Amino acid sequence: TDQWIGVKDCQVVTSDPELEGLLSKLPDPAHTCVEFITREPIEMVLIQGDPRRPKDKTTARVLCTAEGLYVFFHCTTSSPAGAAWSRKTRDTDVWFDNNVEIFLSPDAAGGRDYYQITVNPGGTVFDARARDKAWNGELAVATSIRRGSWTVEVGIPFKSLGLSGRPDNKVWRMNLTRLNTDTGEDTSWCVLGDYRSHTPSRFGYLWVDAGAKVNVPPQDMQPWRRLFNGRDLAGWKLIHGKARVGKGEIRTGYQGQARLLWTEPVPHDDFVVTADVQVTGQLRFMFSPDPANRKVGYFAAFINGINESNVALLRDWEYWNPPLGGHLTIPQVGPCPMQEGRWYRCEVHFRPDRVRLILDGRVLMESANLFPKARYFGLDMLGEGRLKNVRLRRLLSGS
């Protein structure tokens, strides 16, 4: 199952582990283990086999004691030169070396208060709080480089995070990442969708397991369905026009024709579609009960790219903006501040009673929907456009 946000419980152990960089003295049970998956967008052509599977495997373990949190990384490397690194001074640009990173946020909602710890194979550390490198944690760090792998062990005292003790059964947000400079692979525990690591709302959930049941927001437990596999248009029907796939993207913009793609039928109810987009022409996220029946019509969230820069809701070919009481008051056509050559994260939340269009976390349009439930999702592109990371998942009540 392709999940956007992971969930892990952090096991409590009674004794502090001895950090020597070799992963040989982990206390039991240090079994909270996560294998990284490639954070997208990766240059898919550089990946062997499944485009989501990195060439060099990374695993991580997390545990805690009464005094602190411990994270252990094992990084395989296929480079004959091993794990290269050059930064030797704390709080320099360690992220340009081979490195692993720990992102921690005590805010379960994924707010902007979070900690970043970056370590290269030589044990050099960059640490910051919400990008402020004036924060220096009282960290214990040990590393080791071997033929074919390197390892990192990091101890983080709770007092360095402003806590007076162990946060039993408290939900945190966390992400773990690795940059492999030898292969160009940027990998992560939680799929972020792009290279922006500093996105707490997409971190995974972590809690100290002290025996009580912890409730994680159910929406983030819903699996994502990958609508585009990054290799071909399997699962889509190209109704007219031309489209091609390259480097993990759907690309259009040929011969001045519109491209219209529909998914095979899927049993949606309420759902959200998300995609990374780069568009200079027009792009419609379309929903229809039956795209083959023109009498049924469609409903669409419409983006006009940098030439006109606006967004709108369409029902068939007409602007559609019935009011949504108590929510945003917006005109039929709203501004869409897109820049040429830049990638944007676009989300469309679709329900029987409303539709919401979000661009890079900003709600651009929200209005009543009042359209029959759709079983097909489509993309209609006129002019040059590029899309990737197209996903769909159910929406639960209140999300």
UniProtKB/TrEMBL annotation:
Occurrences of domain Carbohydrate-binding (ranges): 55-205
Family matches, as InterPro entries: AL/BT2_dom (IPR010496), Carb-bd_dom_fam9 (IPR010502)
GO molecular function terms noted in the UniProt entry: carbohydrate binding; hydrolase activity, hydrolyzing O-glycosyl compounds
Family annotation (SUPFAM superfamilies): CBD9-like (SSF49344)
Swiss-Prot/TrEMBL GO biological process terms: carbohydrate catabolic process
Domain 3-keto-alpha-glucoside-1,2-lyase/3-keto-2-hydroxy-glucal hydratase, chain residue ranges per copy: 224-383
Protein name, entry field: 3-keto-disaccharide hydrolase domain-containing protein
Organism, scientific name: marine sediment metagenome
